[in-house]
Amino acid sequence: MLAAQFMALLDVFIVNVAAPTIGSDLNASGADLQLVVAGYAITYSVLLITGARLGDRFGHGRVHLVGLAVFTVASLACGLARGSTELIAFRLVQGVGSAVMIPQVLTLIQRTFTGEARARALGVYAAVIAVGAAAGQVAGGVLVGADLLGAGWRPVFLVNVPVGLVLLAVGRRVLPRGGGGGVGRDTARPAAREGARASDWPGLVLLGAAVSLVTVPLVIGQDQGWPWWSGLSLAVGALVFVAFCGYEARLARRGGAPLIAPRVLRHPGMGLAVLRVTAVMAVNGGFLFVLTLHVQGGLGYSALRAGLTFAPTAFVFGVVGLTWRRWPAPWRRSPAAAGFVLLALSVTGVGLAFKGGGHGGAWLFVAYAGVGAGLALAFGPTLTGALATVRPEDAADAAGLLATVAQLGQLIGVAVFGTLFFNRLESVGVPAAYTSAEALLTCMFALATTAALGAVSGLVLRRR
């Protein structure tokens, strides 16, 4: 299950390093490249909660395998795409596969483990999520740099095919086919009442429309000079989101089954977790996307060198994510807040290291390591704390909710900070490396501000 989780998350970020090569090979615009990255996250984030409900209805192991099959076939199609439009369309299908596959991982952890074992499993789950982000950059650089059989960027998608086939074969033998219970146990299908929870189609349509109406103009608007429809789309998207919230509230009052169960939202610490997960994943997505654009576009790094740039971040994230629970007690007080503060300082350090068009120095690697540690401390304890005490019957909703906001955070990070980078890039009329460095520094200050808000949010919500 975690291997499939890692593969899907790798695919969110592996494309970042391949983006410049994809752009030159397919003659894709900046907006096309953002849609190649963000399109996957759009369908992924919108359909995650529905994917969790489908697991409740048809069995988590069975639904996981269906999603894995869709993801594997879509990966093959992406690797064979002949144009940017085809690639964007197949990336949307990849997102659908992930949305069906991934929620089952967290739900089975919730329903299989209890107590300290559950906390440990959630810690490994959280580490896999963020290590997949940074490792995707490294793997993307290695695969594009290797140029296997002259295929250029295509192996970043095609590598999923053999891995997916192996996981399908293994999964058919070891995963439960029914709706609950532990791994390896064949359980009965849940009652029809549980199955009905997967069918809030009006809510799903409203949420999908709201996300699309807000995301598409952020991604495409800058490339097209911010036409009149982009502002209208953002405004309508906000109104549709308000309509979605109102519909979900009315559905809950009538005794229906909204996409997000109200009792999950009322769970202690869930509101703070939603805010912090959104913030940390927005910083993560924005940081990886704009830094890749700078080192490849502004500094002329090869795909391999650009990918290896993120190795310190990936390594430190993995170490901190897997060990923070064993640190001395005084070090584990408010780890998420400390992580956000460290993250804010570190992304600022990265921006300053590249200031003036330089290649940074030894302190740059310290800053990279700080970003990895900050992300791990901000994300892992937040996720573990929110889910460790959730009741098994709420596992699917809690898993879908936090997985959704994590992907929406990634999507917001790529769209908002990518747009900020491109806008700043056009406004500075000096040589490319200096221009890109100035755009990067602006983005890093904005990312630091977002991280600082994540740190302060806990104090504000606890006081309230």
How are the SSEs placed, and which strands pair?
Blueprint (H helix, E strand, L loop, with lengths): L1 H25 L3 H29 L1 H20 L4 H18 L1 H10 L2 H32 L8 H4 L1 H15 L17 H4 L5 H20 L7 H26 L8 H4 L4 H29 L4 H6 L2 H13 L11 H19 L8 H26 L7 H33 L4 H32 L1
Question: What can you tell me about this protein's structure?
Answer:
With 464 residues, this protein is an all-alpha fold. The protein folds into two domains: 2-173 and 260-463, Growth Hormone, Chain: A (Up-down Bundle); 201-259. It has 19 helices and no strands. It has helices spanning 2-26, 30-58, 60-79, 84-101, 103-112, 115-146, 155-158, 160-174, 192-195, 201-220, 228-253, 262-265, 270-298, 303-308, 311-323, 335-353, 362-387, 395-427, 432-463. The longest helix is centred in the C-terminal third of the chain and has 33 residues, at 395-427. The protein is globular, with a radius of gyration of 21 Å.
What descriptors fit this protein?
464 residues; Growth Hormone, Chain: A; mainly alpha; 0% strand; globular; 79% helix; 19 helices
